[in-house]
Request: fold
Amino acid sequence: MERAEKRSELIKLIIVYAIELLIMIGLEVGFNLLDKTNVNPPMIVKSIIIYGLLLIPVIVYSKKKGDSFLEVCKFKKIKVSTVLLTVLLTIVSCPMYIFANLVSQLFVPNIMAQSMNQILDGSAALALVATTLFAPICEEMICRGFFQNRLKNVLPFMASAIVSGIMFGALHLNLNQFCYAFVLGVIFAYVNRASGTVITSMIMHFLINFGNMLMLMAFSGIAATQGGDLGQMAETARANKQVMLSGISVYGFLAIIAFFLCRLIIKAIAKREQTIDIEQDEQLAVETVEL
Reply:
């Protein structure tokens, strides 16, 4: 792809993303207005509305380009060993996004903890479906399947992973979730490049959301038995700066170790799926920038 064509494609992708962001902002304002009138749609309903609207711009753009949206997302079978390595990668990567989450809480509250009452308002089972099934599938199709897979054709891979990570984080519309979503977005981009499919990031996204939701629901139940709620409990913990800084120090150290372990696991996935060697691909990216 020639430089002018790449620049044109990049501008178009930025425009599509701007539309996505405006949709999210509009929905956020709309849901907040409904909340003020004591109307709070169940999480499952919100998810259907959010992802239904977010999918429209990327599907329309793909159709105008003459591409199949599902083909752009790159769905393909992966080996059982790749699935197991993906689960291992999910576990090993935990300190990296936990560290980002803790650092953000030096400045802003834990949004998920503050939102649990609203999320669980109605059916907890349906809320679990919305956050652990709808979100991983739709967000990965949009952020990695569409944006990442198109960005890597016009930018060096590392740059495309960072840009798509920023896009993913910004769609959450708050600093707390932006920080750890950005870290996860970059990891997801690399594991998908290694496996050759968006399936791997979907698996990771599902496992992370499912585990976090179960943990938050458990803590919410504990807080309720003590006459409080999870938001209050999280704010009490956040107010203890000494504990927060200790947690950040521990997870910062673990995150450094996790980074190198994640790299090894991602390389192992690339080897099993017989995709381009990671180091070779990174060298190609450097040479592209130099040119």
